[in-house]
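B., you asked whether I could sanity-check this one before it goes into the benchmark set. Here's the sequence:
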Amino acid sequence: MFGKLKNLFGGDSGIEITAPVAGKVVALEDVPDPTFAQGILGPGIAIEPTEGRIVAPADGTVDVMFETGHAVSMTTADGAELLIHVGIDTVQLEGKHYKACCKAGQQVKKGDVLIEFDPAAIKAEGYQIVTPILVCNPDAFTVEPAAGGTVAAGDALLTLKKK
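And here's what the prediction gave me:
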């Protein structure tokens, strides 16, 4: 009961998910892939990276580090299931230009490096590097953007509130 009262009077500012990479914030509906743009995998936001390093956006546990290094999923300490997908259709690169820096089951702290990648090389291969950051359990959280414009890795990106 007190938790609900706290929420009513603004005591709960929500769970902060930070930017996993520096770059320009892109609305999910503007991502050039219908699976992401339509929110099929979950709500969220995307970033057009200006660097080649993905860091943990919160403390938690890595659930899946894709063999190709192009994507990682994790569960935050607060129970949010996140997917970070570097680029569009980049699974077709079969790991070229990506380096996985974590593995499934690994505990991570906000800011730990998860993936390193070469943005210029990926673009040279003809792929877009826009990076969706999704909440894959939207039944448990409301998801609100906390940033627009450009962000640095570690800046507030999304605010989640438990339903």
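One thing to flag: The radius of gyration is 15 Å. Otherwise nothing jumped out at me.
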